[in-house]
Queue: 2 jobs
Job 1
Amino acid sequence: MTQGTPARFDILGIGNAIVDVVAPVAESLVSRLAMRKGSMTLIDADAAERIYAEMPPGQEVSGGSAANTCAVAAGLGARVAYLGRVAQDQLGAVFRHDIAAAGVHFPTPPLVGGAPTARCLILVTPDGQRTMNTFLGACVAFGEAEVDAEVVRDAAVTYMEGYLFDEPAAQAAFRRAAALAHAAGRQVALTLSDTFCVDRHRAAFRALVREDIDILFANEGELASLYEANDLEDALAAVAREVGIAAVTMSEAGSIVLRGTERVAVAAAPAQVVDTTGAGDAYAAGFLAAYTAGRGLAACGRLGSLAAAEVIGHYGARLTRDLRAAAAALD
Amino acid sequence: MTQGTPARFDILGIGNAIVDVVAPVAESLVSRLAMRKGSMTLIDADAAERIYAEMPPGQEVSGGSAANTCAVAAGLGARVAYLGRVAQDQLGAVFRHDIAAAGVHFPTPPLVGGAPTARCLILVTPDGQRTMNTFLGACVAFGEAEVDAEVVRDAAVTYMEGYLFDEPAAQAAFRRAAALAHAAGRQVALTLSDTFCVDRHRAAFRALVREDIDILFANEGELASLYEANDLEDALAAVAREVGIAAVTMSEAGSIVLRGTERVAVAAAPAQVVDTTGAGDAYAAGFLAAYTAGRGLAACGRLGSLAAAEVIGHYGARLTRDLRAAAAALD
C-alpha cells in the first residue's frame, strides 16, 4: 500500500453502535435522578430499567457518536463506512437500517446470543441540553477482531470516538485501527467525546493524542480537561504542539481550527436550539466531509458549523434536511 | 351495575397496539412503491421487510390509532385505560413504557412466543400527508379473551378503532366490549379509521353503527363511504338518524358535531402542518376528554381541534406540549 493511494471511503467511523431513547424532561427529573446534566454516564441493564421507568414517552432513533458523524457526513456527500456492534434484535435492526439508509457501508456482523443492542437514555431539558445514560450492551463485544482491516486501509480518515476508551476491548480495537490506518498512509481522527470520559482516561488519551492522532476534535471543556489547562489559550498551545490539526468547538461562540501555527476562527451558524444531542458529532462530520474533499480549514470549520446548526434545530442527532447544496455553496 | 355509576376511567381505548416507524420521504417513493397515498394498507412480514429496506432513516414512536387517542386524552387530564396486544420484545417494551408514561393504565399482558410487536411503516411526504403500511404482528392475538370486563365496566366511554374490523378475533373483541359496556350503562364510541377500511367492512360497520355506537368519529370521506352518499349533507342526515352523537372532521375546514337535530360547526385550530399522522386520533381524544368532563358539544369539538392542531405541528401522533391549561381555558 502506497501513501496517498486513492481511497474507497473518505471517512471510516468506529464507535459504539447505539439506539437513542430521547424524551423531553423537566429540569427537576435530572436533579431527582442525580444525573450530571450535559454529560454521558455508563449504566448497567438494571439502571437502564430504572431510569427508563421514570422517563416520559420518548422516541427511538439511531445514535452513537461516531455513527451520527458517519450518517451526517454521508448526507453531505462523503463516502462513508462504519464499524460497530449491534445485537441481532429489533433495535439492532433499526440501527442497521438507519445507517445503511443514510448511505453508510456497515459491514460489522451482529452479535448473536449475547447482550442486546446498546441504548442511550437521553433526557432533554427545556434549555436543549441532553443528559445521556448509556447501557453499552452488545458494544462490549466490539474488539480487535471486529476491526475490518480492508475497510480501514480503504479509508482516507479513520475517525473514532473517545467513548471507545471505556471498554478495554474497544480501546484495543482503537489502537489496532490506528496502526492499520497509519501503515496504509491514512490519517486518524479522534473526538474526545465528553469531559468525564477524558477524566476517566486522561493518561491514555494524552499518549494517544501525542502518538497516533492526526486530527483531534474536542470542545473547550474536554480540551481543558485533557491538558489540565487553566485557560483556553494554554490548552490550544498544548494541542497545537501535539496534533497535526485540532478543531475546538465552543457552542454558540463557534470553533477554532489549528494547524501548527495556523489558526482559523469559525463562527457558529445561526440555529434555534431544540436539542443539542449530536452537535459535536455533526461538526466533525461537516469538517471531515470538507477536509476529505480537499477543502481549506476555514471551509472545513464552516461546514462543521452548518451541520451542527441543522441537527440542534430538532430532536435527534442526524440530518433531517438535505445540506448538499449548502455544502457545495461554501467557498 | 347501575346506569350512571361513577366510573374509574373516563375513557377506555381498545385497538391495535403498534409502534410507528416514521420517515420523511419524497413523493416519488410513494408512487414507486404503488401505495395509496394517505391511506392505511395491511402488509405481511415480508412486505414490511421490503418496504423498510426502501425507507430512509426513521424514528420509532409508539402509535396505534386508539392508543394515540388514549395518550393524548391522558395528557389533557382524562383518566384513561387501554387494551391492546404487544409481544414480549423490544418494541413491545417501548410501546408499554410510552403508554404507561403518558399516564394510561395498560393491563393487557404481552404475547409470548408468537408474532412480534406490530409496526406501522409511515411515509410522510412533504405535504405532511402520511401513507401507512401496517404489519399487525402480535395484534392478531387480541380477541374476546383480552377484553378485560372489569375495565370496560369501569369506563364511562369505551372507544374503539375501525381498524379492529380487519381481524375476525378483534371484531369479536369489539362486539364483546360493546355489549359489556352497554350492560354496565356505559357508552361506546367508534372511529371509522380509514376510507378503505370502511370499504372493506361496510356492511359490518353499518350494522354496528346502527346497533351499538353512541358516539361516532369519522372524516368526510369515511362517512361518505359508510353511507355511499353523494354529498356531505346526505351523509350527515344518515348518520344523525343512526347514532346519538357524530363528530365529522374535515381537515382545515374544521368539524361538524351532530346530536339529533342539534348541529354545531367547529373551526379548525391554527396549525403549521408537518405530519398529519394522528390528527383524527387527537381530535377524538380532545372531544372525549371534554365530553367525559361534562362539557357541551362545542367545547368538545374545540378541544378536539386544539389537540389535533398540536399533533400535526410535529412528527409523531402524541402531544409534545402540555395542553391542560389551554383545555381548562375553553369555555
Job 2
Amino acid sequence: MYKVKVGKKILSANEEFAVKNRKLLAKHKKLCINVISSPGSGKTTILSRTINELKGKLRIGVIEGDVQTDIDAQKIRATGAPAVQINTESACHLSAAQVSNALKDLPIGDLDLIFIENVGNLVCPSAFELGENAKIVVLSTAEGDDKPAKYPVIFAKSKALLINKTDLLKAGVLEDFNIKRVKSDSRKLNKDIAIFEISAKNGEGMSNWYDWLVNLVGSIKS
Amino acid sequence: MYKVKVGKKILSANEEFAVKNRKLLAKHKKLCINVISSPGSGKTTILSRTINELKGKLRIGVIEGDVQTDIDAQKIRATGAPAVQINTESACHLSAAQVSNALKDLPIGDLDLIFIENVGNLVCPSAFELGENAKIVVLSTAEGDDKPAKYPVIFAKSKALLINKTDLLKAGVLEDFNIKRVKSDSRKLNKDIAIFEISAKNGEGMSNWYDWLVNLVGSIKS
C-alpha cells in the first residue's frame, strides 16, 4: 500500500527559487525591496538619489532588471553602490531564479538593503514573487491619475506607493492629474499602503521615504 | 504507408485567430492599427483627438484593451465613435481571439479605420499578432529618451513612432530628454519607421500624423 502525502504545497519552479532567496535574505537579516512601475516612472533616479542621500546610514545594493542594456546598472554604479544587471531579453518580468543568481554577485554581507528594480511593466512583475520582503510601486504623475483603477493588482500588493515627478505638478503642466484620486483609489485597494509624494529630480518629499526605509531595515535586523 | 506533410506551418491558437482577423479586415478593405505603449503615454488622448479632428474624413472605431475598467472606452464613446472594451483581467496583452470577438461588436462596414488600443505595456503586446495591418508605438517624453534602447522589439516592429507630450519639452520641464537620441535609436532598429512629434493635449504636430493615416487608409482601399 502506498501512502500519499497530502497538505504539502507543490511549489512552482519560480516559487522554489523565491523561497530559497527569502531564506538567504532572512539568514543574513537583509531587507529586500522589489520596485515595480511602468517604464520611465523614475525608478533608477529614485534609487540613485536614495543611495547618495543615505550614504553613512544605509549600505545599499541593487539588482537591475531590464529587457536590454545595462544603462540602469551603470547609473547605480556611478553612485558607488554595487549593482548587478539582469537582461531578460524578451521576458517582461524578473524571475526568482534570475534574482538567485544575481544575489551571488552582490556582497550581501556588506549591505543593509537590496533593491530589485524590476522590468518596467505595471502588469507582469506583480505576479512573480522573487523572495523579497516587500514590493513597492512607483507612479509618475505624467502617467495619469487613473492607473490604480486600471492596474489594481500591484497597488493592492505593495507596501508603499511612491508618487514621483511631483515637480511636474508644481510646474503646472499636468492640469488633469488629481493626486487625491490616486491616493484614494490606492487606499481602496490597500488600506495600509504607505504613500510618499516625491520628486527624485529635485529631492522634494524624499526625507519621509528615507525615514520609512531606515525604520524597515531596523525592523528586519531586530 | 503514411505520408507526412512537411512545410505546412503549424499555427498557434493566437496566430489562427490573427489570420482570421486579417482575412476579415482584408475582405472589408479596412485598415487596422495596433497601438502599443507604456501605461500613461497618452494613447487614448491621441485617439480621441484624432477621431474628433478627422470627422468627415475618416470613420474610426476603437477596440480598447485594459486590465480593468472601461474608462478608455467611455472616453472614446464621448467623441461619438464606436468603442468596444476588452478587460484582460490579469493578462498583460490583448489576444487575437479577444480582438476577433470585439470585431463582431463593431460596425465594420461603416468604418474606414479600426484602432486597437492595447494594454499599457511596452513588452508583451509586441509579441502577439492580432491580425492588424500595422503596429504603432507611442512614447511619452516624460518616459525618458532611453526607451528605444531598453525596449527595442516594439520600436523595431512598428510602422510609426508617435513621440507624445512635446508640450512638456517646450515647457522646459524635461531638461534630460534628448529627442534626437530617441529618433536615432529608433531608426537604428527600424530605418523605415515614420516618426511624428506630437502633443495630443494641445494638438501640435498632429496634422502630419493625420495625413499619414489618411494615406494609409487610401492604400488599403485601392
